[in-house]
What we know:
Helix 5 packs across helix 7. The termini are far apart. The protein is an alpha/beta fold and about 180 residues long.
Amino acid sequence: MSMRTLVRPTLQSVHILNRLALRSLPQITAVRHLKINAAPSASFSSTPKRLASSQAEKGASEGSVSLPALGSEITAGDGDFDRILKAAGETPVVVDFFANWCGPCRVLAPVLQKVVKENGKTFLVKVNVDEAEQTAAANQIMSLPTVVIFRNGAVQDSFIGSRDESAVRKFIEKATGQA
Length: 179
């Protein structure tokens, strides 16, 4: 038997591999929905503030939301994300689409916090895609972490994956006109 015969896949082997993949598909899909309830790491020392319910109700009744101070961060969900973008107007808004189980998200989070705080011309909105599924779907978030800059409610720029501090700084400075 030659080496070529051993390497060439047969139709039967392809069917076997397909059946194995289909059997494990529900298990692979279940991993995406797994939420890790471990204690947050030391890198998450400052927890983002969620809009108070009175502010959210006020925003719903008046159509506006009080924005956080420039250089700070808040968490948004399905109910308040669009109102935050609308209220921001010309101010560039850095949005971090993340998940608690995402390792690169955990690496990127403190870098984003630091750069946004130092920049002072924008603010950071954190969107947990597991809790804000409609917002993630509406913004076509397929990979994590995804960082998007919005201005006037429209996407201005974005990147996918973790970046080092200098790349994040250039990205945010370009969006705020400091580049």
